[in-house]
Amino acid sequence: MQCADVLDLVEPIAAGDLPPDERVREHLHSCPACAGALASAQRLETLLKAMEFPAAPAAFVSQVLQRIRRDRWRSEQNVDRLFNVAIVAAVILIAGGLLALLNVGTVMSLIGSVWTLVKEGSRETVRTAAPTVVTYVAAVGLLASALGMWAWAERRMQF
Amino acid sequence: MQFDERELIERCRTGDDTAFAELVDRYKDLVYGLIYRMVGDRGLADDLAQDVFLKVHRGLPYFRGEARLSTWIFRIVQNVCVQARSGRPPDVPLDDGIGGDRPSRQFGSEDRAFDSLEDRDRLDKALARLPPNYRMLVVAHYLKGVQYEALAEALNLPLGTVKTHLHRAKRRLRELLEK
User: Fold this and answer.
1) Domain boundaries in chain B?
2) What's this model's pTM, rounded to 2 decimal places?
3) What is the ipTM score, two decimals?
């Protein structure tokens, strides 16, 4: 048995993962370098097992809870902001609705004009885009898949 | 998963802060110890350990309980440590040049006797010089609670591969100690 073979087994033997067979034992008896490497690995194993891991600071739990509360407060603030935006939008819609009720004739003719404009515009757009629509659908599908995969990977990375 | 752990998770999901405090208390030393050994700075370890629990809190609604809670937390620790060291030099590949050079001096051999304090100090310094992926393996394995099987599960690697990488990591560590 060669030194290189035995040196590859030194760590598993020292960790107790691999009991040395007869040939390895014979080599270790006759080779001071390999026996020294095993002694060194065993010493390292002892030191690693005795390695100290510092405990978390005394106030750790309360600090984590504080950060969680701050985090929760921030997300509640965001909800509040969103709610305020929704209220402003609702007020504008209501005011617009009231104004429209007061000027029904004007609003109806405006709606008619907008409808005609949209109808003509979309007909023209469809006529122009029809030959390439398959390409667009495929491109959108591919883009959506890529975005979906990216979002999934991001989510996996986060946890 | 143990019943009390599942119950604890359920209570955390309902927004019970007392339950979450209990969860943090249960895993704080494991998380802090692991991160401290990875970054070697108490202040940074404190911040990163808090980040881990923040992620745990945000992720609990999505935790399906397929893995053990400790395994899931270990994965988060690993990701947080990877993010913390982004921008630093890249890791040395796991099979980097092991066995190429033979040790020039044997650690702990008779020609040089060290007391345990000095040995521990040298071990700390050698650990700090170990590539982060090796360091994480060694530290996680020797920190109470993270055994071969849990490591394999957390790293999504076969058990044999984890053992091989760990033995290589220790060999590298021994080489660093003997330099």
Assistant:
1) 3-84, 116-178
2) 0.66
3) 0.74
